[in-house]
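thoughts on both lines:
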Amino acid sequence: MAYDPPPHYHLGGPSDPQPPQSVPPSYSPLQPQQPYAEGYGPPPMTAQPSAPAPGVPAQPAFGTQPLLQPPPAAPRKSPAVILLAILMSVGLAAAAVSIALWLKASGDLEDVEARVGDRDKQISQLEDDLEAAEAQVAELEGPAAEAEALRACIDDLNEYYNTAEGSEEEAAALEALDVSCDGLIF
């Protein structure tokens, strides 16, 4: 079917007359009713379709679309499935949290173990140093004691020589000299 174009689509010259505007035909699935000459019309439609030719799908007799059936409804999930899904989600989250905490704790534990190992090494080094110092002190105590005894003897000897002869102080200094210098001079 052809439609007359609107006036602004007219491609003719300015002197060409425009054809009159027409209304577009209605859009209906039925054919427009036009009078047919006797014997020249479409065949009458029947309610029952004729048998289709082999390999051609059957068509309804009227120009209608077949009714589409909605897809079958999905079966409802039981509450047990929903409960199991929730429990599985919670379990997965708990496992993820516990793994994260375990990794953090094991990392902290390794750090603490490394620090404890370092402290143990320092403590063992300090104990070795202490033992060496005690041995050195024991080694030096003998000569120090001898030097102290010698010093006391010399002090008492100086006091004895600084006292007057035949006095009581001389007798006391001589007794102190006998005690402090025992084994060194006499």
The two ends are 157 Å apart (CA to CA). The chain has two helices and no strands.
